[in-house]
Structures are given as C-alpha cells and as structure tokens.
Amino acid sequence: MSWVRTEMALAQAAPASVRGPVAWVRKNLVGTVGDTIMTILGIAIVAWILPQVINWAFINAVWTGPDRTVCATVAQGGIQPDGWTGACWAFVNAKFGQFMFGTYPIEERWRPILVAILFVVLLVPMLIPRVPRKGLNAILLFLMLPIVSFFLLIGGVFGLPHVETSRWGGLLVTLSLSFVGIAVSLPLGTVLALGRRSKMPIVKTLCVVFIETVRGIPLITVLFFVSVMLPLFLPAGVTFDKFLRALIGVSLFAAAYMAEVVRGGLQAIPKGQYEGADSLGLGYWQKMGLIVLPQALKLVIPGIVNTFIGMFKDTSLVLIISMFDLLGVVKQNFSDANWATPQTARSGLVFAAFVFWLFCFGMSRYSMYTERRLDTGHKR
Fold first, then answer.
1. Is residue 376 helix, strand or coil?
2. Is 251 a residue whose pLDDT tops 80?
3. Are 302 and 221 in contact (CB under 8 A)?
4. Residue 88's beta-bridge partner residues?
5. Full-prediction pTM beyond 0.85?
6. What pLDDT, on a 0 to 100 scale, did the predictor assign at position 374?
7. Buried b / exposed e across 35-71, counting CB within 10 Å, b at 16+?
8. SS3 sequence, 295-307?
9. At residue 378, does pLDDT exceed 60?
10. Neighbours of 17 (CB within 10 A)
C-alpha cells in the first residue's frame, strides 16, 4: 500500500551557502585564485590610501577662518605647525557664494535660488514613473521653465534689476549650459539621425555634412567660432549675448554626437518592425513615433546618458570664451592673495571634482534604474 501526500510541502529556505553576505563574498571576492589575489591587493591599496584621505579631508582639515593664515604653516606666515597638511575648507566656505553664482549680485541671488527650486520641483516628479501627467510636466520643465528662468535671471522686467550674463558664473553657468544642451540636443539629434537615414538625397546630405563637420572639430573650436568669428559674419550692428552663443555652440555640438547614438539605436531595430508598421498603414512619422523610436531610444539609453555626462563636464571649456563655470571660478579664485596657500588649490579642485562627480554619478545611477525598468523585451 503506497502513501500519497495530501498537502504541499512547506517551502524550505535557501542554503546558507547560496544566500546572504557570506555567499556574496564567496561568489564575488574569493571565487577563484585570481579573484582572491585581486581582492587582497584592493584591500591593501584602500588600507594605504583611505587613512591618508580621511586625515587630509576631515581630521587635519580647517573648516572656518577669515583668511589664508588659518591654512598656512608658521613658515608660510600662518598659524599651522610646520609640516601640517590638511584641507583648507575655510577657502571653500569663504568663496562658496562665488562658486555657486559667480559675481551675480548678492542681493539678487534669491533669483537663481528660486530658479533652482523650480527646477527641482519639476524635475523630481518627471523622474518618478508613478507620478501622473508626464506630458504637462514635460511642457512645464522643458518649455515654461526656460522662459521663466530667462526673465528671472536676466531681469529688466517686472521691476527686477537687469543682470548681465557676464556676471554669471560658477554652478549657475554649468547647470544652465547643461540643461539647455540636454533639452535641445536630444530632439535635435533625433531629427538629425532620422535625416541621415532618409531616402531624400538633399536631406540626407545636409544631415551628414552637419554631423561629420561638427564631430570632426573640438568643442573649443566650436565655442571659439560662435563667440569670436560668428559676429564677423553678421550684419553691422547685429550681435547677441555671449552666453547665448555658448548655449548654441554646446547644443549643436552635443546634437551631432547624439545623432550618431540615436542612429545606432535605429539600425538595431529589426526590419520586421518597420514592415509591421507599414502593414498597419501607418505614415512615416506615425511609424517612427509610435513603433521605431520608442524601441530605439530604449536600446541606446547608456549612450544617451554618456553624451549628457560628457556634455556636463565639457561645460568647463567655456573658459576659452571668458565665461567662468564652476571649475573656472574655482581656478580664478586661486589668484586671491588673501587665500594663497599650497592647500588652497588642492581643496578648491577637490570641491569642484566632488560637485561634478555628484551630478554625473546621479545621472549614471538614474540611467541604470531606467534601463532595468524598461528592460522587458530583452530579458533572458
């Protein structure tokens, strides 16, 4: 007589050897002899570097002070003992306003602060998938916010004092150039990519010439051309703001690279998708907007974000046309005799590097999140 189970067996927990931190260490750090050697070497390097970094950045650092004396040794005319090494965060603290806004009038800095608040308020719900009304949110973020920001930052209307863009600087310039470049380069790059794949010879030729010409010259050359040489080709008495020229140059340069990224995504779409859209009777723009582009852009998210990150860092090159972004303002303040010490430059550059890393790392992490959320058709 056989026995038949009438109830399902209770689920058993996974063995300790395949779950938990111990299993992760065995799999990722000491899985093979080579992994073990690299892990030990990595731990040794971190153990050697990390204490020195902590001592310089935190323990021996100077956080506040009126001038260079707090960050200089006795031999250098300061109060620190000979042989002292530590970060001079007092310099960053004293110059923080300039690092953020340049020489924007102090009494008017509430205007860029208000623009930053509006930007965050509109950006956060745009990045959260569950928040509804993405269309309205996109209109407010990419169309209305630039207009409102322009009048707030420039002034000259509604009783606001006029502030010339030559007085802008620091993170204000970096974020302004990056935001406009991102907002313009993606749609313009998409149009250029479609034009390069067009069957109309004139459209294709124009797009190819533009893309290859812009990609074949450095960004510094583009900025120099739009800032110095472009006014030579304009009618007498016709000119426009230098900051606007930088915006145009950065946007066009990024759009050329974005076009090739998007074109790679278009070429990765199987021919059957195009044929399926044609069989449904869809027109060209319906086929691209509803069928092809959503799939193509999803495939090239890493390339798109990589272009954004590169553009964000390349804003430092506007120094060539006498505009000072975050890095430019930091370097400009090294010449301040009140803060001239060996640690001043190091501290300022570390601060600028951290700010750039913070924004780039945030874009990278959100890109990875978006990839995981949209990776529904290629999972194995």
1. coil
2. yes
3. no
4. 62
5. yes
6. 84
7. eeeeeeeeeeeeeeeeeeeeebeeeebbeebebbbbb
8. HHHHHCHHHHHHH
9. no
10. 9
